[in-house]
Protein backbone atom coordinates (compact mmCIF):
# COMPACT_ATOMS: atom_id res chain seq x y z
CA UNK A 1 0.00 0.00 0.00
CA UNK A 2 1.36 3.45 -0.87
CA UNK A 3 2.43 5.58 2.07
CA UNK A 4 1.44 9.23 2.01
CA UNK A 5 3.36 11.93 3.88
CA UNK A 6 1.63 15.20 4.71
CA UNK A 7 2.78 18.44 6.30
CA UNK A 8 0.18 20.12 8.48
CA UNK A 9 -0.11 23.64 9.90
CA UNK A 10 -2.68 24.52 12.51
CA UNK A 11 -3.85 26.90 15.19
CA UNK A 12 -4.23 24.70 18.24
CA UNK A 13 -6.41 27.02 20.32
CA UNK A 14 -9.70 25.11 20.04
CA UNK A 15 -8.20 21.61 19.96
CA UNK A 16 -7.13 19.35 22.82
CA UNK A 17 -3.93 18.50 21.00
CA UNK A 18 -2.82 16.42 18.03
CA UNK A 19 -3.79 12.98 19.30
CA UNK A 20 -7.28 11.49 19.09
CA UNK A 21 -8.87 10.75 22.44
CA UNK A 22 -9.51 7.18 23.60
CA UNK A 23 -12.95 5.62 22.99
CA UNK A 24 -13.73 5.65 26.71
CA UNK A 25 -13.96 9.47 26.69
CA UNK A 26 -17.69 10.18 26.90
CA UNK A 27 -17.64 13.55 25.14
CA UNK A 28 -14.42 13.66 23.11
CA UNK A 29 -13.18 17.10 22.12
CA UNK A 30 -11.72 17.89 18.69
CA UNK A 31 -8.13 16.98 17.86
CA UNK A 32 -6.00 17.65 14.81
CA UNK A 33 -5.48 13.95 14.09
CA UNK A 34 -9.20 13.36 14.49
CA UNK A 35 -10.15 16.05 11.96
CA UNK A 36 -7.79 14.60 9.35
CA UNK A 37 -8.87 11.01 9.96
CA UNK A 38 -12.52 12.07 9.73
CA UNK A 39 -11.96 13.27 6.16
CA UNK A 40 -9.93 10.22 5.12
CA UNK A 41 -12.58 7.88 6.51
CA UNK A 42 -15.46 9.77 4.90
CA UNK A 43 -13.81 9.70 1.47
CA UNK A 44 -12.50 6.13 1.50
CA UNK A 45 -15.22 4.47 3.59
CA UNK A 46 -12.47 2.88 5.71
CA UNK A 47 -10.85 3.94 8.96
CA UNK A 48 -7.45 5.35 7.99
CA UNK A 49 -5.04 5.89 10.90
CA UNK A 50 -2.80 8.95 10.68
CA UNK A 51 0.58 8.86 12.45
CA UNK A 52 2.08 12.17 13.55
CA UNK A 53 5.70 13.04 14.22
CA UNK A 54 4.81 14.19 17.72
CA UNK A 55 1.87 14.84 20.04
CA UNK A 56 1.40 18.56 20.41
CA UNK A 57 -0.56 19.41 23.56
CA UNK A 58 -3.88 21.17 23.93
CA UNK A 59 -3.60 24.74 22.65
CA UNK A 60 -0.21 24.25 20.95
CA UNK A 61 0.18 25.34 17.32
CA UNK A 62 2.18 23.99 14.39
CA UNK A 63 3.83 25.49 11.32
CA UNK A 64 4.91 22.13 9.94
CA UNK A 65 3.74 19.03 11.78
CA UNK A 66 4.50 15.91 9.71
CA UNK A 67 2.27 12.85 9.51
CA UNK A 68 1.80 9.78 7.34
CA UNK A 69 -0.88 7.24 6.47
CA UNK A 70 -1.27 4.24 4.15
CA UNK A 71 -3.81 3.97 1.34
CA UNK A 72 -4.74 1.45 -1.33
CA UNK A 73 -3.55 2.16 -4.88
CA UNK A 74 -7.02 3.38 -5.81
CA UNK A 75 -7.17 6.04 -3.12
CA UNK A 76 -3.52 7.02 -3.40
CA UNK A 77 -4.29 8.49 -6.84
CA UNK A 78 -6.86 10.90 -5.44
CA UNK A 79 -6.01 14.63 -5.23
CA UNK A 80 -5.76 14.74 -1.46
CA UNK A 81 -4.37 18.25 -1.42
CA UNK A 82 -7.60 19.52 -2.96
CA UNK A 83 -9.77 17.41 -0.66
CA UNK A 84 -8.01 18.58 2.50
CA UNK A 85 -8.10 22.21 1.37
CA UNK A 86 -11.84 21.93 0.74
CA UNK A 87 -12.90 19.95 3.81
CA UNK A 88 -10.58 20.84 6.68
CA UNK A 89 -11.62 23.53 9.20
CA UNK A 90 -10.18 27.00 8.64
CA UNK A 91 -7.63 26.58 11.43
CA UNK A 92 -6.00 23.44 9.93
CA UNK A 93 -4.16 23.34 6.61
CA UNK A 94 -2.36 20.51 4.84
CA UNK A 95 0.46 22.36 3.11
CA UNK A 96 2.01 19.44 1.21
CA UNK A 97 1.13 15.88 0.18
CA UNK A 98 3.64 13.40 -1.23
CA UNK A 99 4.10 9.66 -1.68
CA UNK A 100 7.06 8.22 0.23
CA UNK A 101 8.62 4.78 0.52
CA UNK A 102 7.31 2.23 3.02
CA UNK A 103 10.30 2.66 5.32
CA UNK A 104 9.41 6.26 6.10
CA UNK A 105 7.78 6.87 9.48
CA UNK A 106 6.83 10.38 10.50
CA UNK A 107 7.92 9.81 14.11
CA UNK A 108 10.66 7.19 14.03
CA UNK A 109 12.42 8.53 10.92
CA UNK A 110 12.78 12.01 12.40
CA UNK A 111 16.36 13.10 13.17
CA UNK A 112 15.49 16.28 15.05
CA UNK A 113 12.69 18.77 15.68
CA UNK A 114 12.44 22.46 16.35
CA UNK A 115 9.87 24.56 18.18
CA UNK A 116 9.37 28.28 18.54
CA UNK A 117 8.01 29.99 21.63
CA UNK A 118 6.78 33.60 21.49
CA UNK A 119 6.82 35.99 24.42
CA UNK A 120 5.06 39.38 24.57
CA UNK A 121 7.18 41.93 26.42
CA UNK A 122 4.71 44.80 26.73
CA UNK A 123 2.79 45.19 29.98
CA UNK A 124 -0.09 47.38 28.85
CA UNK A 125 -1.78 45.17 26.27
CA UNK A 126 -1.42 42.34 23.74
CA UNK A 127 -2.44 43.01 20.16
CA UNK A 128 -5.66 41.00 19.64
CA UNK A 129 -4.27 39.36 16.50
CA UNK A 130 -1.31 38.04 18.52
CA UNK A 131 -3.18 37.13 21.72
CA UNK A 132 -3.70 33.42 20.84
CA UNK A 133 0.00 32.98 20.00
CA UNK A 134 1.99 34.66 22.78
CA UNK A 135 2.69 34.49 26.49
CA UNK A 136 2.37 37.98 27.95
CA UNK A 137 5.31 38.24 30.35
CA UNK A 138 6.08 41.95 30.34
CA UNK A 139 9.70 43.19 30.22
CA UNK A 140 12.41 40.59 30.79
CA UNK A 141 16.17 40.54 31.37
CA UNK A 142 17.18 39.01 28.06
CA UNK A 143 20.85 38.69 29.01
CA UNK A 144 19.87 36.55 32.01
CA UNK A 145 17.68 34.41 29.75
CA UNK A 146 20.55 33.91 27.30
CA UNK A 147 22.84 32.89 30.16
CA UNK A 148 20.27 30.35 31.39
CA UNK A 149 19.79 28.93 27.90
CA UNK A 150 23.54 28.35 27.52
CA UNK A 151 23.46 25.84 30.40
CA UNK A 152 20.77 23.83 28.60
CA UNK A 153 22.64 23.39 25.32
CA UNK A 154 24.16 20.01 24.53
CA UNK A 155 23.37 16.54 25.83
CA UNK A 156 21.73 16.31 29.24
CA UNK A 157 19.31 14.19 31.20
CA UNK A 158 16.20 16.38 31.01
CA UNK A 159 14.12 14.38 33.52
CA UNK A 160 13.50 17.62 35.44
CA UNK A 161 11.75 19.02 32.38
CA UNK A 162 9.45 16.07 31.67
CA UNK A 163 5.87 16.26 32.92
CA UNK A 164 4.07 13.17 34.20
CA UNK A 165 1.95 10.99 31.94
CA UNK A 166 4.46 9.28 29.68
CA UNK A 167 6.01 5.83 29.51
CA UNK A 168 9.37 7.13 28.23
CA UNK A 169 12.26 6.03 30.46
CA UNK A 170 15.25 7.46 28.54
CA UNK A 171 15.19 11.17 29.32
CA UNK A 172 18.54 12.07 27.74
CA UNK A 173 18.22 14.53 24.85
CA UNK A 174 20.56 16.87 22.95
CA UNK A 175 19.62 20.52 22.44
CA UNK A 176 21.53 21.95 19.48
CA UNK A 177 19.95 25.42 19.48
CA UNK A 178 18.30 27.50 22.17
CA UNK A 179 18.28 31.12 21.09
CA UNK A 180 15.99 34.01 20.16
CA UNK A 181 15.31 36.08 17.06
CA UNK A 182 16.57 33.54 14.53
CA UNK A 183 15.69 34.96 11.06
CA UNK A 184 15.67 31.53 9.40
CA UNK A 185 12.94 30.41 11.79
CA UNK A 186 10.64 33.38 11.28
CA UNK A 187 7.34 32.66 9.51
CA UNK A 188 6.49 36.36 9.42
CA UNK A 189 7.81 39.76 10.43
CA UNK A 190 8.37 39.86 14.17
CA UNK A 191 6.70 42.70 16.07
CA UNK A 192 8.80 44.99 18.33
CA UNK A 193 7.12 43.70 21.50
CA UNK A 194 7.64 40.03 20.66
CA UNK A 195 10.57 37.82 21.60
CA UNK A 196 10.63 34.52 19.70
CA UNK A 197 12.77 31.72 21.11
CA UNK A 198 13.78 28.71 19.04
CA UNK A 199 14.60 25.30 20.55
CA UNK A 200 16.03 22.60 18.30
CA UNK A 201 16.87 19.15 19.64
CA UNK A 202 17.26 15.47 18.82
CA UNK A 203 13.88 14.93 20.45
CA UNK A 204 11.64 16.27 23.19
CA UNK A 205 10.01 14.91 26.32
CA UNK A 206 6.41 15.57 27.37
CA UNK A 207 5.95 19.36 27.64
CA UNK A 208 9.72 19.78 27.69
CA UNK A 209 9.81 23.01 25.68
CA UNK A 210 7.15 24.67 27.82
CA UNK A 211 9.00 23.61 30.96
CA UNK A 212 12.28 24.96 29.61
CA UNK A 213 10.60 28.26 28.77
CA UNK A 214 9.22 28.43 32.32
CA UNK A 215 12.81 28.34 33.58
CA UNK A 216 14.08 30.83 31.01
CA UNK A 217 11.33 33.34 31.84
CA UNK A 218 11.88 32.87 35.60
CA UNK A 219 15.49 33.91 34.99
CA UNK A 220 14.32 36.85 32.90
CA UNK A 221 12.11 37.95 35.82
CA UNK A 222 15.01 37.52 38.30
CA UNK A 223 13.04 34.90 40.22
CA UNK A 224 15.93 32.46 39.88
CA UNK A 225 19.57 32.96 38.87
CA UNK A 226 20.85 31.54 35.56
CA UNK A 227 23.63 29.86 37.55
CA UNK A 228 21.03 27.70 39.28
CA UNK A 229 20.09 25.91 36.03
CA UNK A 230 22.78 23.17 36.27
CA UNK A 231 21.52 22.22 39.74
CA UNK A 232 17.92 22.20 38.50
CA UNK A 233 18.97 19.83 35.69
CA UNK A 234 20.94 17.61 38.06
CA UNK A 235 17.95 17.25 40.40
CA UNK A 236 16.04 15.14 37.82
CA UNK A 237 12.91 16.22 39.65
CA UNK A 238 10.09 18.20 38.01
CA UNK A 239 9.41 20.05 41.29
CA UNK A 240 12.93 21.53 41.19
CA UNK A 241 12.10 23.74 38.20
CA UNK A 242 9.70 26.68 37.80
CA UNK A 243 6.15 26.24 36.51
CA UNK A 244 5.27 25.18 32.96
CA UNK A 245 4.86 27.98 30.41
CA UNK A 246 1.39 28.35 28.80
CA UNK A 247 0.62 26.36 25.66
CA UNK A 248 -0.44 29.37 23.58
CA UNK A 249 3.11 30.62 22.89
CA UNK A 250 4.38 27.30 21.53
CA UNK A 251 4.48 26.17 17.90
CA UNK A 252 6.03 23.09 16.31
CA UNK A 253 8.22 24.66 13.66
CA UNK A 254 9.97 21.91 11.72
CA UNK A 255 10.73 18.19 11.70
CA UNK A 256 14.11 17.16 10.26
CA UNK A 257 14.56 13.86 8.38
From TrEMBL:
<feature type="domain" description="Pseudouridine synthase I TruA alpha/beta">
    <location>
        <begin position="148"/>
        <end position="257"/>
    </location>
</feature>
<comment type="similarity">
    <text>Belongs to the tRNA pseudouridine synthase TruA family.</text>
</comment>
<feature type="active site" description="Nucleophile">
    <location>
        <position position="57"/>
    </location>
</feature>
<comment type="subunit">
    <text>Homodimer.</text>
</comment>
<dbReference type="InterPro" id="IPR020103">
    <property type="entry name" value="PsdUridine_synth_cat_dom_sf"/>
</dbReference>
<keyword id="KW-0819">tRNA processing</keyword>
<dbReference type="InterPro" id="IPR020094">
    <property type="entry name" value="TruA/RsuA/RluB/E/F_N"/>
</dbReference>
<comment type="function">
    <text>Formation of pseudouridine at positions 38, 39 and 40 in the anticodon stem and loop of transfer RNAs.</text>
</comment>
<feature type="domain" description="Pseudouridine synthase I TruA alpha/beta">
    <location>
        <begin position="8"/>
        <end position="108"/>
    </location>
</feature>
<dbReference type="GO" id="GO:0160147">
    <property type="term" value="F:tRNA pseudouridine(38-40) synthase activity"/>
</dbReference>
<protein>
    <recommendedName>
        <fullName>tRNA pseudouridine synthase A</fullName>
        <ecNumber>5.4.99.12</ecNumber>
    </recommendedName>
</protein>
<feature type="binding site">
    <location>
        <position position="115"/>
    </location>
    <ligand>
        <name>substrate</name>
    </ligand>
</feature>
<dbReference type="Pfam" id="PF01416">
    <property type="entry name" value="PseudoU_synth_1"/>
</dbReference>
<keyword id="KW-0413">Isomerase</keyword>
<dbReference type="InterPro" id="IPR001406">
    <property type="entry name" value="PsdUridine_synth_TruA"/>
</dbReference>
<dbReference type="InterPro" id="IPR020095">
    <property type="entry name" value="PsdUridine_synth_TruA_C"/>
</dbReference>
<dbReference type="InterPro" id="IPR020097">
    <property type="entry name" value="PsdUridine_synth_TruA_a/b_dom"/>
</dbReference>
Amino acid sequence: MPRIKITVAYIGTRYVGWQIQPPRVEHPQPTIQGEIEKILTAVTGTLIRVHGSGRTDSGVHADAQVAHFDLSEKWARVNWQKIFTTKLPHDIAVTSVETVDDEFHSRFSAKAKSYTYTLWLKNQYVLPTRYPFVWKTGPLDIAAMEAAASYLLGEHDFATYQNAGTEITNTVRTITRFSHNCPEYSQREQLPDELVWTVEASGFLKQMVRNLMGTIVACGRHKIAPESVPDILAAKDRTAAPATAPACGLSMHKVFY
